[in-house]
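Per-record layout

source: Saccharothrix coeruleofusca
name: Phenylacetate-coenzyme A ligase
length: 434
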Amino acid sequence: MCVSTDAHPLTDPDAEGVDPERRREVQERGLRRLVRRLLDADGVQARRLRERGITDHRDVSLADLPRLPMVTKQDLWDHYPLGFQADDRIVCVHGSSGTGGRPTLVPYTAHDVDVWAQVMARALAGAGVTRRSLIHNAYGYGLFTGGLGVHHGGMRLGAAVLPISGGMTERQVRLVADLRPDVLCCTPSYAIHLGEALAKAGVEPTFKVGIFGAEPWTEEMRGQVEGVLGLRAFDIYGLSEVIGPGVACESWDSVGMLNVAEDHFYVEAVDVEGNPVPDGTPGELVFTTLTKTGMPLLRYRSGDVASLAGPAPGSARTLRRMSKVLGRRDDMLVVRGVNVFPSEIEAVLLADPRVSPHYLVVEDRRDPARPELRVVVESTPEAGRELAGALRERLGISCAVEVVAEGVVPRSETGKAKRLARWSAGQPPVPGLT
Ligand code: DLL
């Protein structure tokens, strides 16, 4: 096994390292081909384009993008199951379980799977994975894109992939001891869980790097993951609608931001009205899939809030970068008129070493006239009192800190961690909360 820490090879120099002006030309051609595919498919997106007077792909340029129509998750739900499919050469379907049990399904052509393998191979290589690596892939395999996304990319890179998937932690501990993998891929919350299980079993972690995503996590959480597993933790971002993991990923030289694979996924950041925000200002990410064929999307509103920036100075990668995701637009809590992202709460909690990384933010709206923000932590009563002060200072509103015993906050062995519960009636989201 071998992780590369001192070289940061570009697996795709023509795409990752090209002069941005030249990339823009490639993107522009990609945009025109996309518009042609959409008009030919004659679906919802074609109708909206025609309504805006666009009947020929040669009419559009990148500069026109802000006035082109957008697609939302609601549109995908309204045309469930496969109303946005634009090609009949489908080889697989993935998706996300989504809120309210409504899945979003995404059909892929062989070409799309090839693009996916390519961007995932890039992402893994940027984090130091080599063809001599063994990847312990504990993202779930199935409809969820995490498991198979890493699988495709790892194999494309020539690394070995252990498709352990999520859950059955005892078996995972056993295989870490027996196979000594150097790369861990899973959600950041499962990384902590696995790290704790390894410590409990007296097994020394063997990982050099970890590539974690699929849920929001802060710099403080990164510190915890690196501490418990003794590895370097990288953030990877993606969403099923666009391709899955691999839309953007940190590399050794990306200075805390994620390189966007913008030759395939053109990114914009917009405000609530859909107007562009300047680099450095948080906005909702909007993606245009320049090369996808199975379910191509023009200006898909992701719901994820992050800021954009140019390439890292001095890096061989010339790609635009995105910050870590601050949260989802619809996860933003508005409590007594103040906007709060759960990630801001996490930053305060995990800055205190007495607090376990397992926590839950509860938006208690049982009395609609007096909504309350409550934070359930596993810690000491003394730390709980101090946290209440620190949270008031950071957020500008007071919230109740509820201290519970270790193990009370529900853990997720598979899937994404649940960090936010909205409580308007019925059973408490954590046992014992009144
Ligand atoms: O979560 C794809 C993925 C798998 C990404 C493995 C990274 C690693 P979905 O299930 O469709 O796809 O969920 C997409 O998850 O819109 C974000 O809200 C959230 N998300 C994904 N990665 C991150 C991240 C996969 N690194 C939704 N940070 C997205 C914060 C993330 N949120």
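summary: DSSP finds eleven helices and 21 strands in the chain. The chain has a mean pLDDT of 94.
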